[in-house]
Design a protein that fits this description.
7-stranded mixed sheet, about 220 residues, 14 strands, alpha/beta, binds zinc ion, 5-stranded mixed sheet
């Protein structure tokens, strides 16, 4: 499923195995440029570049790369994609330090494969002129600086690993990959209060219609 919503592509070919989906999103900006949200595992850059070629997007048209959090399945191809696109890179200020391996992350989940110093750090509530205009929300729990991106006009939530998709249900980030479950619950409840049409999750999903209701049916029980 390449273009899942107008201007929103779920990049094909990046899943490491059929049972482990990793949804890298390529999103059209207001102008002619594009934004990549997360980058997949090391080696996923080959599939991302092949996909860009398939949809006739020049790598140099990808002007921004946003990272939801430090884990290797999100940052693994960050260096390779910077080299190919020369895009500006963005992460929450806490996560940026871990992506730079300064300090090394000692929490659950796989740390970055190599250090990358991102160009710009954001904090909760910052606006990012990317993907048609995003608000960055700090949604900690999965990792300390985990963040989600909300596209206000179209009511899209790029939720990173805050929610996982299991069939037609959204579930909370699993404990084995999660820094602090109670904090993740608080973040999930906060996101459920937004007006959301589509939840663009990274593992499983996405929930293109009734995304807000889908996550509220989870958070009501938290
Ligand atoms: Zn993760």
């Amino acid at each position: 499923m390449p273009e899942i919503l107008p201007g929103v592509h779920q990049v094909e070919g990046v899943d490491p195995s059929p049972d482990f989906s990793t949804h890298v999103y390529l999103v059209k900006d207001r102008g002619a440029s594009w934004t990549l949200i997360d980058t997949g595992l090391p080696g996923a850059s080959t599939a991302i570049l092949a996909y860009l070629a398939k949809v006739h997007v020049e790598p140099s048209s990808v002007k921004k790369i946003l990272i939801t959090h430090l884990h290797r399945d999100h940052t693994g191809s960050l260096r390779a994609m910077i080299d190919k696109t020369h895009a500006r890179t963005f992460a929450h200020w806490i996560e940026a330090a871990y992506i730079a391996l300064d300090p090394k992350y000692d929490g659950p989940g796989t740390p970055p494969a190599e250090p990358v110093v991102v160009d710009e750090t954001f904090k909760d509530g910052d606006s990012i002129d990317a993907a048609g205009g995003l608000i960055a929300y700090h949604t900690p729990g999965h990792t300390p600086g985990h963040s989600s991106f909300y596209q206000t006009e179209r009511k899209l939530l790029f939720s990173g690993d805050l929610f996982f998709g299991e069939g037609d249900r959204a579930v909370l980030t699993p404990p084995e990959y999660t820094h602090h479950i109670p904090t993740a619950k608080i973040s999930a409840r906060r996101m459920a209060r937004l007006s959301i049409d589509s939840v663009l999750s990274y593992h499983g999903g996405p929930f293109l219609k009734n995304g807000g209701a889908t996550i509220r049916s989870l958070t009501q029980k938290l």
